[in-house]
Write a structure and sequence with these properties.
Blueprint lengths: L11 H41 L4 H7 E7 L2 E6 L1 H8 L8 H4 L4 E2 L5 E2 L15 H19 L1
Antiparallel strand pairs: 1-2, 3-4
Helix pairs in contact: 2-3
């Protein structure tokens, strides 16, 4: 039986250089992928806002921010001016100025606008939000009639 002598000569510096080059390629690919994902997310937010929002669309779109704060880290944000779209209007806010935008002006100079309410469903089939709104309006009218 013969002895087998194996000799390995490993150049660790060359292997490390290859891994460093590979690491840089992977890092660049990941940064590109994250940038693409951030851009797609930004586009989707804008698409959803365009589909869902009407009168508040411009305010919301103007409040969106999209920026890379460091390599591979992106932020999509809504600043304070558009946050109300997400959180709602604070209670007690007078809605008349917003509702009277694009209103018709009568001969005597008052501004009017028709705001349709659909009551073609019995209360049991109306959404809860509609039921609450109708009840609030009824209560407000009842208080005005008592005064």
């Amino acid at each position: 039986m013969s002895d087998i002598n194996l000799k390995f000569n490993i150049d660790a510096a060359a292997i490390a250089d290859q891994f460093n080059a590979f690491k840089l390629e992977v890092e660049q690919d990941l940064n590109k992928a994250v940038a693409n994902l951030a851009a797609i997310t930004d586009a989707k937010v804008k698409e959803m806002a365009s589909q869902e929002l009407h009168t508040s669309r411009k305010d919301f779109m103007d409040s969106l921010g999209f920026e890379e704060i460091s390599p591979g880290v992106w932020i999509i944000s809504v600043d304070e001016s558009g946050l109300w779209v997400e959180e709602g209007i604070p209670a007690g806010t007078d809605m008349k100025p917003a509702l009277l935008q694009n209103a018709k002006v009568t001969k005597n100079g008052t501004r009017t606008k028709v705001i349709p309410f659909h009551y073609d469903q019995p209360p049991s089939q109306q959404p809860v939000a509609t039921q609450v709104l109708v009840q609030t309006i009824k209560e407000g009218l009842a208080q005005e009639n008592r005064a």
